[in-house]
Design goal:
alpha+beta; 6-stranded mixed beta sheet; 13 helices; 462 residues
Amino acid sequence: MEQRFASLGTMSVNEKNFIQTALLSDLRIDGRGPYDYRNLKIQFGSEDGSSDVQLGQTRVLGFVTSQLVQPYKDRPNEGSLAIFTEFSPMADPSFEAGRPSEFAVELGRIVDRGLRESRAVDTESLCVVSGKWVWSIRIDLHILDNGGNLVDAANIAALAALLTSRRPECSVGGEDGQEVVVHPPEEREPLPLIVHHLPIAITFAFIGEETRMVIDPSYLEEAVMGGKMTVTLNSNADICSIQKAGGDGILQSDIMRCLRFASMKAADITDKIKKAVEAYDKGRTLKKIKRHPVPLKADEAGQQRDNILVEIEKLKTEIQDTRIDSECDVMETEIQLSAKDGSVTEENKHIPFIGGPSSWDPYSKGVDVDELKVSLASKVSPALVDKLTAPQSAAEPDLTISDDHARNSDPIPSSRGISEPAEGTNQPKPRTLLDAVKPKNKRKKRDMKNTKKLRVHGSDGV
């Protein structure tokens, strides 16, 4: 219905009287009280620095862009901030395309004064190279629908766009240190603008002969008002600017009352803007996080663990088989060498193999377990040691054996754990039982060549 009145451009006397009479009873045509604000909705676009603000039926879009320019001569260390407005005939038939109207210029100046004069944006942080390059921030405000109070909606849209804007990061280098390199967003994260505080614009309208004051006037109330005033202040109640655009005069008491109401509304609107910006920043951060794979369920995790264990067992089995095969190859090689030398007889072919492949050793072949235990026990007995180390008599047979003869002859278990020497053979240097039992670590260090020599020597002794 308001758009119909906008197309007509004028209002009847009865409609004006109805609005003024309703205000005498503290009622407004849209159901609000004199000091109630319309519903505020803040949204953001897919790109940084874009905002969509809807205040009742008023809708404004804000866009923030930045570029490197040369600074002003009187301010070589500060960037610049500029605001441009665009009034489309789609928002209101009274708006004309092309040249901006007086109201468009006034709106841009009110928003610009609130941001610039209060130093809300840190312009010194926009300096790249003093006197040569600075960042120029441009705010474009597009009026999409005029439902009244465009100043407040445009101010909120500009602030929301500034808080979500990002400028590219740049570095200074070169031989003279004056070359500027602008890094794209793919290489370095863009930097946000530094905003110290949020100057909020609150507009009041004065209607009727008794100058009834209302806050956030609608389109129809602006058509019948006698004057209006815009107060810009932050959440700390610091006054940034005051704009009185002609019309009826206002008493000092009314101005002070407007400031009290404006301070409360500014704090409320500031909280809404900050909450909306925090939600936008949170969503923007989540988009940059790399997603991790979905965790496996309990059954899938258990099955995967079992598969890993099976693979480990297979690997162990393969390693063990490889070790056994290598030891068997060594055994076959030594048997073949012994067969060539003729040291393998029919008697010792049937001697059972004692021990496993990992403990196989040519020196322990043919040694019985009981014989080994008796020899180890005799090793501890002092009497037996004295007897063995004493000089042998002519009547007592020689109890020592040669290392080569012990390997090639068939051992006969006895109480002393020794075998009788063969008659008619050349005996080497006498040895004791302590020398017959070799430590296991010394056995493994013998290589194939030494083993072959020993076997050949043993066959010659037989």
